[in-house]
UniProtKB/TrEMBL annotation:
Cofactor stoichiometry and binding remark: Binds 1 FAD per subunit.
UniProt record similarity statement: Belongs to the DNA photolyase family.
Residue(s) at site: Electron transfer via tryptophanyl radical: 309, 365, 388
Native source organism of the sequence: Duganella vulcania
Protein name: Deoxyribodipyrimidine photo-lyase
GO molecular function: deoxyribodipyrimidine photo-lyase activity; DNA binding; FAD binding
Cofactor(s) of this protein: FAD; (6R)-5,10-methylene-5,6,7,8-tetrahydrofolate
Keyword entries, A-Z: Chromophore, FAD, Flavoprotein, Lyase
Length: 475
């Protein structure tokens, strides 16, 4: 018997659940990656994520070749291409790893139906997360809606069943990988896929399994200090692994094993458990999306859909200024410049810029969510939506609805010396550490090459409290 492994957001060979299962179940295993035209056709012709996938796929193909296998690559709609390829190869089953996004679930359902019609099986494995869907439930069997009890239950479940972390060793079964046919075509170039190179290489964002491994190696010696360092955007505090989580160039099991091992040896300091909690946030949001698909386009707490956002040309102008980093608030503008230039934004700044758009400018959070989705290298529907709903207070949050960040105090606290701001807004480099957070307050002879603030925070805050009053009545 033979099978086909369909890679999607799991662009690696090692510790790969679906590949391992297929190798165990079948005498001959083919592998395929499909550049999905239903996604790619809607993207700008320069997209860092496409570059990232392209480079990572080259590495997967090379690794499979080294193991005696071969990666088939297609550029098509997978809903048609996968069943067609399965028929062409005459395989008995297609294996892949679970995807939890509503559109991906619909796609997989369609593929499964088509395969079944041809007498083939569709086998899907848990790989992207440690615990999925309904595996972590409350004591009464309910789905969690608040993070901390979810995290505690997650940790308890892992303690009870550490076997979920067991690695899937692919190498011992590699002899079952189907070798490249004699006429195997070369991997498609970016140009053949209809794309031009982005600035990914210039940014030195490491790609593929080797890139993830290098970032992890760089991060582990810093993990003990993560709790302190992670909030300051000018400091190298976090792991920068998010794009690798997104495309599965790393194994989440491997990361959790590594962190738990550090903690067991007393080497993780205060940072390791905090970092582990971030990985649990990721799974929490994936679980929330799976059980609450209405969060795509709607508030997690439906009462928040009654809020009336700014509309019309003035709102469009405010939104454009936010996107382009010309709000007049240096930390917000520097953060947007970071996003626009690199596709990454520090977590603290994602919170600051999202709160600013929603609660200082009164713009519908869904517009900001869509902008992030377009520009973030690590864009993940569940985490991005969760982050935006957190910022708009419409999501799974134990905090009161009226939390409003002050963009000046956030700046003074988290970029006190203005180091991050100066990196992205060089026109402000000569302001003092004290002045740089609110340049309009500084009397000057010559105007700065920098806009005045779009709104005054105190006035905006009052408007937001009024805007959110409609929720207060029903919450
Ligand atoms: P680290 O601090 O090293 O964290 C390690 C990993 O944990 C991350 O790579 C990520 O996989 C996960 N993680 C960390 N924080 C969170 C979180 N709050 N929620 C879920 N997972 C988390 N993260 C995305 O991966 N994709 C997104 O599209 C995304 N959009 C966001 C939008 C908003 C408005 C906010 C407030 C947060 C968003 N996040 C998103 C979460 C977080 O900002 C990023 O995961 C983090 O900044 C990535 O950097 P890192 O890999 O260096 O993180």
């Amino acid at each position: 018997n033979s099978s086909l492994v369909w890679l999607r957001r799991d662009l690696r060979v090692f510790d790969h659940a679906a590949l391992h299962r297929a190798l165990q179940d079948s005498a001959r295993v083919h592998c395929v990656f499909v550049y999905d035209t239903t996604i790619l056709d809607g993207l700008p012709r320069r997209d860092r994520r496409v570059d990232f996938i392209h480079a990572s796929i080259a590495e997967v193909a090379a690794e499979l070749r080294q193991l005696g296998g071969h990666l088939i690559v297609r550029h098509a709609d997978p809903a048609a291409a996968i069943p067609a390829l399965a028929a062409e190869l005459g395989v008995d089953a297609v294996y892949c790893n679970h995807d939890y996004e509503p559109q991906a679930i619909a796609r997989d359902d369609a593929v499964e139906q088509a395969l079944r019609a041809g007498g083939r099986r569709f086998v899907s494995c848990r790989d992207q997360v440690i615990f999925e869907k309904s595996e972590v439930l409350s004591q009464t069997g309910g789905v969690f809606s608040v993070f901390t009890p979810y995290k505690n239950a997650w940790l308890k479940k892992l303690e009870a069943d550490p076997s979920v972390l067991a690695p899937y060793h692919v190498e011992p079964l590699a002899a079952r990988l189907a070798p490249a046919p004699a006429n195997a075509p070369a991997l498609p170039s970016l140009a053949e896929l209809g794309f031009e190179p982005s600035n990914l290489a210039e940014l030195k964002i490491p790609t593929g399994m080797s890139g993830a491994a290098a970032l992890l190696e760089d991060f582990l010696p810093r993990i003990a200090g993560y709790k302190e360092a992670r909030d300051y955007p000018a400091v190298k505090g976090p792991s920068y692994l998010s794009i690798h989580f997104r495309f599965g160039t790393l194994s989440v099991r491997h990361l959790v094993r590594t962190v738990l091992d550090l903690m067991a040896r007393g080497a993780g300091g205060e940072g390791a458990p905090v970092w582990l909690a971030e990985l649990i946030w990721r799974e929490f949001y994936a679980m929330i999306l799976y059980h609450n698909p209405h969060v795509v386009g709607g508030s997690y707490k439906p009462a928040y859909d009654a809020i009336e956002w700014e509309t019309g040309p003035h709102a469009d102008e405010l939104f454009a200024a936010w996107c382009e980093g010309r709000t007049g608030y240096p930390l917000v503008d520097a953060a947007m410049a970071q996003l626009n230039q690199t596709g990454y934004m520090h977590n603290r700044l994602r919170m600051v810029t999202a709160c600013f758009l929603i609660k200082d400018l009164g713009i519908d959070w869904r517009r900001g969510e869509a902008y992030f989705a377009q520009h973030l290298n690590d864009f993940d529907l569940a985490s991005n939506n969760g982050g935006w709903q957190w910022a708009s207070s419409s999501g799974c949050d134990a905090q009161p609805y009226f939390r409003i960040f002050n963009p000046i105090t956030q700046s003074e606290k988290f970029d006190a010396s203005g180091k991050f701001i100066r990196r992205y807004l060089p026109q402000l480099k000569d302001l003092s550490d004290k002045e740089i957070h609110a340049p309009w307050l500084v009397p000057r002879m010559l105007p700065l090459d920098y806009p005045d603030p779009l709104v005054m925070h105190d006035e905006a805050r009052k408007r937001t409290l009024e805007r959110y009053a409609v929720v207060k009545k029903t919450d």
